[in-house]
């Protein structure tokens, strides 16, 4: 049986603070098996969201998208996201709203309740380590993420 919650983490571990999403997902991989709700989660990691990620939303009740952002308020921003056709023509990457939109177009029904956890990053240079500021933001986001995973429902998350 497919877990009813999917968590997407995007980012490039070789680009400084862009590693925040993958680092949080790595922590989840180690932590979730010991949690009572742990079996409800599937974890998906990629450099960026693609149209194919809409298929990962099938049979889900809840989705969470984790990423780093340079214009994000510190330490992080957590909010619901809705389907929207906000495709760009300069990149293959999609926003969480666009992935939800693709799902709705393919399936002909509403996407699952979805949220974004965007963690403030400050340095995204190739080959750079995670900055000290981003490490602090990651720690704050980790506490939020644990809280979310302990009470995984759209109502608890704010819908």
Which residues sit in consecutive blocks of at least 5 with pLDDT less than 50? Answer: none
CATH fold group:
Rossmann fold
In one word, what is the shape? Answer: globular
Distance between the termini: 26 Å
CATH first level: which class? Alpha Beta
SSE order: EHEEEHEHH
Instruction: Summarize the main sheet.
Output: 5 strands, mixed
Helix content: 25-40%
Q: How do the strands line up in the largest sheet? A: 2-1-3-5-4
Strand content: 15-25%
Structural class: alpha/beta
Number of domains: 1
Total helical segments: 4
Query: CATH superfamily membership, which one?
Result: HybD-like
* Cα-atom radius of gyration: 15 Å
Mean pLDDT: 93
Number of strands: 5
CATH architecture tag: 3-Layer(aba) Sandwich
Task: Write a concise keyword list for the protein shown above.
single chain; Rossmann fold; 30% helix; 4 helices; five-stranded mixed β-sheet; 159 residues
Question: Would you give an account of this structure?
Answer:
The protein is an alpha/beta fold and 159 residues long. The protein has one domain (5-157): Rossmann fold (3-Layer(aba) Sandwich), CATH 3.40.50. Helix content is 30%, strand content 21%. It has 4 helices and 5 strands. The protein has helices spanning 20-31, 96-107, 132-150, 154-157, and strands at residues 5-10, 41-46, 62-69, 76-81, 113-120. It has a 5-stranded mixed β-sheet. The chain is globular, with a radius of gyration of 15 Å. It starts with a strand and ends with a helix.
